[in-house]
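Bench notes, afternoon.
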Amino acid sequence: MNETHSYDPETFHPSITHSVYVTLEGSRLQLAYPRANIARWASFDETPHKAVFLHSRTYQLANCKVSLVPPGLARKRVWNRKYPICITLAEGEEGEESVVEGQETEEERAEKNTDPHQQFPVTLYLFGRTGREKEEWFQHFVSASRAGAQTSVSDEGNTGKKTSCLSDMEKFTCYSMPNLPFSIILSTIKESTEELPDFPGAMKARTLLDYSSYMIQLMGSESCNPTPSPCHSDKGSPTTCKKVSEKSEPTWVNCLVGRIFWDFLREKYWADQVAHKIQKKLSKIKLPYFMNELTLADLDMGTCLPHILSTSKPTLDSRGLWLQLELVYTGCLQMTLETKMNLCKLGKEGEDEAHSVPETQKVGSKMKLCILADSDEESSSAGSSDEEEVPPSELQGCVGDKSPVMAADGHTGGRTSRKILRFVDKIAKSKYFQKATENEYIRKKISEVSNMPLMLSVEVLELSGTLAINIPPPPTDRIWYSFRLPPRLDLHVRPMLGEREVTFTHVTEWIEKKLQCEFQKVFVMPNMDDLYLPLMTSGLDNPPASHHSSIHSSSQQSSMESQEYLSE
């Protein structure tokens, strides 16, 4: 995971986080700090890490408060990996630090000697490397805080001993389930629950047993020996199922979905809705200051929906229910993006910022919190430049991160692009360039280029691969989905400058490769996207306000108005 010692949504930047290896045993949380940071976000082609740990800290989560920050997040941002899990330790709880023998540097020894009574933070801010991991860790932390409270009451003072039957059972069910057959897991849980007294902790164990029995009745005995979930693979890539050949042809699903979405592909209303959604997302993309906003000029929804070729038998493990779908899409979705390059702004970046800073300072903090709480407002994508680019002012604010900032992220694309923009801006601000722009002929050419639209037409010819669907154990209100392996993504890209099409092979191949890379950052494991299902319960103390509540309030107001009318 990633950790930061303080969090403020107004000033936070991912560059101030550092890597930490998290281990949770019962209510005992251990944070191990490596010598060098790993990639901040998980990716499909990630190689196994051989970290060298310098020191570790141990905390007890008994009676701690686990929450999601910032408060008031919109429902679709609840499990976004950009926002941390906040753990507020119980009053009087202090962490214990241990140094790995032989790994302590001279600087750390000097710091320890100068400040022997160093206080550890009482509030921990931890970021998941994927959205799915964030939800899973949050539920583990909540369970540990509640189970730890029972353990601390029955066995106060023996924090390192595992005498509580409840904590043993929870540790077993949370961390050992993927490696054992499901029948053994059920028998172990049943034996543990029979020995427990009748108190609220035991009710949770019975609830887990009820959920497992319920799923077994639905799936049958043949599906009760699941393979490990895809995210538990050794190399970070998903493993294949044992019975891949046992698949069924879901013709009825294709017929049902195809009939329901018949009007979706033909009605202009739905095309406008999709275009509006895409445009809001495009507005969040950061472009150089001399370029206009990226707009969606044209959208063709295609001729058909994704077709399900086959489905695998469902499997069940500690991470929930898993299902695989073989998908193929050949509907030829096409969209055209447009922007303009305003060369008249070259060399005037500082002036624009000077005029815009006062307004940002006035409404910046309130505006950002409103955006985070607004479910209709779009946020930047998972691979957006705000996560890769590190402002120089924020480089000095890295606390506890002694390795280079770019090494923490594992990406250098944002740094390279900033170097190019600085080079262009340096040339534009030079006196030779400024003197050349005074020439009437050059000024005319600059105006012509500035009025010339830059267009990019992208056509999705084919998308095929294995889509994994995961529903975590309760409590959850999300359905997670992602491709297990990078799918076959056949794109046709046509960049155009005005009415002229750019036919350079290197340019088109670079754009196609960049789009495929962005696709993998979101829709290829271990990264997963989620869908909200209101029929399920999230288990959060303060769940985000749903659209149903607003409808209920409006209907209640209308009923009151009707009663007043009848009384009159």
